[in-house]
Amino acid sequence: MHTRPRAASRAGDVAMVDRSFLAIAIVVTVIVVGLTFFAAVAIQVTPQASAKEEAAPDPAAKNTPADAVKADPVTELNSQIERFNANRSLIPDKGISPIEQRVSRVEYEKEKDEVRCYDARGAVFLTLQRQPDGRFKGILQVKYHELVNPERHSWGTVQAEFWLPGGSFPKVPSPAAAPSVAPTPPPSPAPGAGGEKLVPLAIQLPKPLFEGTPKNIKAAPTLEKPSARPPFMVPEGLTNLALGKPVTSSDSEPIIGDLAMVTDGDKSGSDGSFVELGPGKQHVQIDLQQPALIYAIVVWHYHGEGRVYHDVVVQAADDADFVQGVRTLYNNDFDNSSGLGIGKELEYMDDYRGRLIDAKGVKARYVRVYSNGNTSNDQNHYVEVEVYGKAPK
Ligand SMILES: [Ca+2]
Ligand SMILES: [Ca+2]
What we know:
Blueprint: H1 3-16, H2 19-43, H3 47-55, H4 65-68, H5 73-87, E1 105-109, E2 114-118, E3 124-130, E4 136-149, E5 152-164, E6 198-200, E7 233-235, E8 239-240, E9 247-249, E10 275-277, E11 281-300, E12 307-308, E13 313-317, E14 327-331, E15 349-350, E16 355-372, E17 380-382, E18 384-390
Antiparallel strand pairs: 1-2, 2-3, 3-4, 4-5, 6-7, 8-18, 9-11, 10-17, 11-16, 11-18, 12-15, 13-14, 13-16
Bound molecules: calcium ion (2 copies).
Residues 261, 264, 266-267, 273, 383-384 line the site of one calcium ion (CA).
């Protein structure tokens, strides 16, 4: 009834609209476009899957890529995390944080018909719930930081969606059915598994020797953004098993210092407290002198200035020649230039905190740390390597 007069008056308003009104309209448009962009990034994790889900929860939606996946749920979810982390660099100005956690095991909770994802510390960080079409969906809130202008920062979150095919965990019809079972056995022994008490790992840190990011280190999709390190949870009673243990190396005659410096407990990083190995790919190797359960390895290459050491690969093995039971615990050689396989970790800038590597409770006697030059020179430096663990039961 009032449509006609209202439309007419709106048309009149538009004609008379002043500049400030236009400015507000432009701002609103920019915000809407920005939000749409974020949504697009979040959805890129599983584009078809999420589109389908929003459109129609149709049981016939079985031929989506998520349903076609043959990998086990842990591998599948971790690859979705990797995809999100890779995609976030498409909007470099927004500073979207990488998802740090990886799924180390999943558990199907039949009462709630949901899948719980545990990280390496045994904490649930992602839960996927059954959707009307039978598949499982979970959401992680991922932080971002944006410099709007030199004075103003803004912080927020984007949503990363994760999907599993419904067939990964068929719905359990009766309460008397089998107990909830993880499709992949938990890594043995998993920290926190079996109700083991976890405590934050206490690491004695040396004094910082520099602040900020040096000019010669350029942001890159393969380089981790500096961030605070959250407490790392480990079983009680761990010690630094590497302290004072014998060190060997691919370079038996270091240019500066000696190999014993790698395990002498001195992490200060100043002149006279690091060993310098020759150029190119080199490693140091620590003999723990008996097999141990290893939960964390902390590596200080050099922290007198900001440097990125290339091709950092950390392995554990049962024998000194690294032939038996070799397990790669960390690898950031993204282009396989060291020939130990393509690494999925990001490169990082060394600082006084050292690099903490999750060793997931592996049982091993020997630890090897590789590097292949750094952003300041071709040499390889080691201030200290700590190996936190305990004797096997
Ligand atoms: Ca040392
Ligand atoms: Ca490399």
